[in-house]
Write a structure and sequence with these properties.
By secondary structure, the chain is of the alpha/beta class. It folds into three domains: 72 residues, no CATH class; 232 residues, Rossmann fold (3-Layer(aba) Sandwich), CATH 3.40.50; 61 residues, Arc Repressor Mutant, subunit A (Orthogonal Bundle), CATH 1.10.10. The protein contains 13 helices and 15 strands. The protein has a nine-stranded mixed sheet with strand order 7-6-8-9-3-10-11-12-13, sandwiched between helices. Strands 1-2 form a two-stranded antiparallel ribbon. A two-stranded antiparallel ribbon has the order 4-5. Helix 7 runs parallel beside helix 9 and helix 12 packs across helix 13. The radius of gyration is 37 Å and the shape is globular. It starts with a helix and ends in a 6-residue tail after the last strand. The relative contact order is 0.10.
């Protein structure tokens, strides 16, 4: 056999053995060349090798976390306006700090909004004007018999509901000599807002900050946002309120009730306030004025209370002087004395307080709380008679 033929025969034997077979080529994929080497990423995620795009392998979690941690403060709470649970619960002030009120009789708590509700012509703007005057230190320190400590800052009054009528109401309460102080510390926005506050909830706080106002009065809610019967609008307006409160400022707004209660009954409770429930749910306190427009005697009900329910009262609406003042209130001590040896029950008290011939369980419980407070003050005593608690005059204590 010739040498060449011999080498060819040996080659065939080696080929059949597979011992020196070539390695399979590395399949081409996005990001790699055919030899398994990384290549530059193609533009727009297109594989320039003509293959179907294949996603890159997921990033290493440890490397990703390390990258995210760069520049982050040691305590993530530093980037958020949060407080620890212990401070939030135990470092609160004693009692309920009040813009308007004292002790447990608080009509406007600090850090919570007050709503003054009622039909037109009952004195909502008059009452707001009395609060403005007291906050500026221009009047007695009390409104309806409860203190209103003056502030040092400015007041923003959104006079949106018939601004000329609001001006006529306020001029009855202020004097020409008050003008320099009013020019410095009372800022009035006459007419509708520059935008619907429910659509731009940050607007109210922006105005308060820009004008450096410590207290904001909104007169009235119906002019601040449109579509108040919608829960979406009611919740958005409440968000605007909460922005102001969360910024350390105080807020009071006025709002209207429905014309009549269920079945044509007189307006009497928080459910008769017009619009979404979120309008009242977001308030710390709600006052309801009742009666007919122009009535000289107006009912006063504290229908949402942060502590004790204040009143109810009958108010004299003096439209000439521009003032509401307490004309009459139900005196439970006098009622107890009038009942003599029979004593006064919670049901009897509720009938008098709420002018209800058949008081509800809730009304009777509210009356009981007022009687128990007088008992705690040493004014009344209580005895069980025929399965009911009857209250009697103790003959001493505060009245």
């Amino acid at each position: 056999m010739e040498p060449a033929d011999k080498l060819a025969a040996q080659g065939k034997v080696i080929a059949k053995s597979g011992k020196y077979a070539p390695k399979a080529p590395v399949p081409k994929r996005n990001g790699h060349d055919g030899n398994g080497q990384l290549r530059a990423a193609p533009p727009n995620g297109v594989d320039t090798c003509g293959n179907e795009p294949v996603d890159d392998p997921p990033p290493d979690p440890e490397e990703q976390q390390s990258s995210a941690d760069q520049g982050r403060p040691a305590d993530p709470r530093a980037t958020w306006e949060v407080v620890d649970g212990g401070s939030f619960i135990f470092d609160q002030p004693q009692g309920v700090p009040a813009v308007w009120g004292k002790g447990t009789d608080v009509l406007w708590p600090e850090g919570e909004s007050l709503m003054i509700a009622g039909q037109q012509g009952l004195g909502k703007t008059t009452l707001m004007g009395q609060l403005v005057r007291a906050l500026l230190g221009l009047s007695d320190v009390e409104v309806l018999g409860l203190p209103v400590p003056p502030i040092d800052g400015r007041i923003l009054y959104l006079a949106m509901d018939r601004p000329r009528q609001i001006a006529r109401s306020l001029i009855r309460q202020f004097r020409v000599k008050d003008r320099p102080l009013l020019e410095e510390r009372l800022i009035v926005w006459p007419g509708p807002p520059s935008a619907d506050i429910a659509k731009r909830p940050e607007l109210l706080l922006t105005m308060a900050r820009d004008l450096d106002a410590q207290v904001v009065f909104v007169d009235s809610v119906k002019d601040a946002a449109l579509g108040l019967s919608s829960d979406e609008v009611g919740a958005a307006y409440n968000r605007a309120r909460q922005y102001v409160i969360a910024d350390g400022r105080q807020l009071c707004d006025s709002h209207h009730t429905v014309k009549r209660g269920p079945n044509g009954a007189a307006v009497k409770d928080i459910n008769d306030i017009y619009g979404s429930a979120w309008l009242t749910n977001g308030c710390g306190s709600v006052v309801l004025l009742t009666g007919e427009p122009g009535d000289p005697i107006v009912g006063f009900r504290h229908v949402k209370a942060p502590v004790n329910e204040v009143g109810p009262w009958q108010l004299l609406h003096d439209s000439v002087a521009g003032e509401l003042r307490v004309e009459a209130e139900i005196n439970l001590v006098d009622l107890v004395k009038a009942k003599g040896v029979d004593g006064l029950t919670a049901r009897d008290a509720a009938i008098a307080l709420f002018e209800a011939s058949q008081p509800s369980r809730a009304q009777k419980e509210k009356a009981r709380r007022k009687l128990d407070k007088l008992k705690a003050d040493g004014v009344l005593t209580v005895e069980e008679r025929d399965g009911r608690s009857a209250y009697f005059f103790a003959g001493e204590g505060k009245q």
